[in-house]
Design a protein that fits this description.
mainly alpha; Ferritin; 8 helices; tRNA 2-(methylsulfanyl)-N(6)-isopentenyladenosine(37) hydroxylase activity; Ferritin-like; tRNA-Hydrxlase_MiaE; Ferritin-like_SF; tRNA-(Ms(2)io(6)a)-hydroxylase
Length: 203
């Protein structure tokens, strides 16, 4: 399913653990709830970047489009939830995003580059997880997740292209740093299921 996006597959350090996929299938109410939160946060991140970096024309263009698409995805997930009588509840954040963001450098333009690289990993991982889940879900949800692959893959590309555009030096080392970190966050066990959690912790 991800064969159309070889650069995305190569970018990610690993596939989602099978134990996470099984955990997701056992917690589809929570999956949809957290998915909705993720789409809303993604739109918010794009908007915050537009407010902070007003002098970056390409960033403004790409983040404006991304924010609109993420809000549309939120609306679509929320509509699915309502049709299934699933309440949209507050959820604590997973350790995934915080685990990446706490390593963002504080000086510019390094801060912007790190945010862009993290954005690329988040979008790429979301795309990979939708593809991993789709074959195992009911027809409606499977079609929906497959429909998200193209836009999530493009968001990954947008973030990565912006990171390269706004950096005055190669970013390979920084990508490698976050790649190692992302692999740990995805493969190490978690006690709470989330869209970007690791596999369940065995107690």
């Amino acid at each position: 399913m991800l064969s159309a996006y070889p650069e995305l597959v190569e970018f990610l350090p690993c596939e989602s653990p099978k134990a996470w996929v099984n955990w997701a299938l056992e917690n589809q109410t929570l999956l949809l709830n957290d998915h909705a939160h993720c789409e809303k946060k993604a739109a918010s991140t794009a908007m915050n970047l537009m407010y902070r970096y007003v002098d970056r024309d390409n960033l403004l263009h790409k983040m404006s489009r991304l924010a609109r698409e993420e809000l549309l995805h939120f609306e679509q997930v929320h509509k699915l939830m309502r049709s299934r009588d699933i309440a949209y509840d507050h959820l604590s954040a997973s350790r995934y995003a915080d685990g990446l963001r706490k390593h963002i450098r504080t000086h510019e333009p390094a801060r912007l580059i790190d945010i862009m690289i993290i954005g690329a990993f988040v979008e790429a991982r979301s795309c990979e997880r939708f593809a991993a889940l789709a074959p195992h879900l009911d027809e409606e949800l499977s079609k929906f997740y497959i429909s998200l692959l193209k836009s999530e893959a493009r968001h990954f590309e947008d973030y990565l292209e912006l990171a390269k555009e706004y950096s005055s030096e190669p970013i390979d080392d920084r990508i490698a740093f976050f790649r190692d970190l992302e692999e740990k966050l995805i493969t190490e066990p978690d006690t709470e299921f989330r869209m970007h959690s690791g596999p369940p912790k065995v107690v």
